Amino acid sequence: MAHVVVVGGGITGLAAAFELTQQAEPPAVTVLEASDRVGGKILTTSFEGRSIDAGADSVLARVPWAVDLFRELGLGDELIAPATGRAFVWWRGALHAIPPGLVLGVPTGLPALARSGLLSWRGKGRAAVEPLLPHTDGDDDLGLTVRQRFGSEVYDRLVGPLVGSINAADPARISLAATAPQLAEAVARHRSLLLGLRSPSRASAGPVFLTYPEGLGCVVERLEARLRESGTDVRLASPAGIIERTAAGGYAVAGIDADAVVLTTPAAAAGASLASVAPEAAAGIARIRYASVVMVTLAFPATAAGRLDGSGYLVPVAEQRHVTACSWGSSKWPHWAPDDDHVVLRASLGRAGDEHVIEFDDGALVEATLADLRRHLGVRGDPTAVRVTRWPRSFPQYEPGHLDRVAAIEAALPAGVVVAGAAYRGIGIASCVRQGRAAACAAMPDATGSAKLVG
């Protein structure tokens, strides 16, 4: 029987292992996770007596990959959508509602943009001429592309904050193709980005996001249990170390002989593991930069929390002090607030290009968060509970040229080694599930094709 070793027990690795168990002739599968738990950046803990996510709190619903996996685990009927999709941007001392009809902050219509107080009349006028402009090529630079098409205000106040928040990115260094492929496709296919994004084929009914009411950590637990039931050897506190070639032509991973390896760890660990069998690929992977972020979760009496009539708000770079975004958790997810007495907020701090808060101790982090929340929301008094969750080097940065660098890494990988995960072709849970499952198929010893990085 063939043996496949999956390195990394985050959602990419678990999805890869699950896919391997679903094959008509499944191989033996071993999952090696260096920490004492699986799930990676998916983590749910108790907060004020409720199960509240300390990392990602939902999955993208308009692509099938994560939702299909949840259904295969028997959880599909229990998924729920946010109670509201209304969100805001903090700009010049006020919260402004994000206009409807945007794709990653890019307008698909002008009337809603014209009514918004977020842009100046000059900025609205500049955006309005976009359909009249000749085709432009932003050269895989999201900021350059959007500024060429719509002007600086649309990017600085809408696209940059939204995409930057999702990726903890420096808005000045974002790859168009890797971070926003739907925008890149529209740029390539249409003269006008606005009209290209308005295409009827892009219309999609239903919620944008879904979650599991008991927290996404419960999904990870169900997935781990299914893997163990299938005979998968899931080993915790088991770093892979350096991958070596064996005399038989396979690989040795942490003392295990493997016919193939699916490597799903963060870039630094992946580069270290590949140093012997693929030094050129290892060097390329190690050059992928990461940003560190902190999530501060707070509970307040409902009477002290101020304005909470949406899912949350974003803070553009020009307005940032400490908080980059804040989710109004108990408005977004009503099951987080089973009574009307308290509300839950989740504030994000830190991004690429500005990680000053990472050096703060927990007390200073809470004070910095409260200072911004009081300014933005009018929060009064002190929180009744606080949780600080640090995510060091947790967000890979898709800078311009990212996919070209990924292609070079792909070309340097040896047969039998597949690399997938957030560092390469999508940081969201759905993208990681897609990459993991596709990587598993590519890793099967009888798999055909040359792709070793799965996008």
Describe this structure in words.
- There is one protein chain.
- The protein folds into three domains: 3-43 and 214-288 and 399-443, FAD/NAD(P)-binding domain, CATH 3.50.50.60; 106-193, protoporphyrinogen ix oxidase, domain 3 (Orthogonal Bundle); 290-396, Alpha-Beta Complex (Polyamine Oxidase, Chain A, domain 2), CATH 3.90.660.20.
- The protein is built from 17 helices and 21 strands.
- The radius of gyration is 22 Å and the shape is globular.
- With 455 residues, it is an alpha/beta fold.
- A seven-stranded mixed beta sheet has the order 7-6-17-18-19-16-20.
Fold topology:
Blueprint: E1 3-7, H1 11-21, E2 28-32, E3 44-47, E4 50-53, E5 59-60, H2 65-72, E6 87-91, E7 94-97, E8 102-103, E9 106-107, H3 111-115, H4 121-128, H5 142-150, H6 152-167, H7 176-179, H8 181-189, H9 193-197, E10 209-210, H10 216-229, E11 233-235, E12 244-245, E13 251-253, E14 256-258, E15 260-263, H11 267-273, H12 279-286, E16 290-301, E17 312-314, E18 323-327, H13 329-332, E19 342-349, H14 362-377, E20 385-396, H15 402-411, E21 417-419, H16 422-425, H17 429-443
Parallel strand pairs: 1-2, 1-15, 2-11, 6-17, 15-21
Antiparallel strand pairs: 3-4, 5-10, 6-7, 8-9, 12-13, 13-14, 16-19, 16-20, 17-18, 18-19
Helix pairs in contact: 1-10, 1-17, 2-17, 5-6, 11-12, 12-15
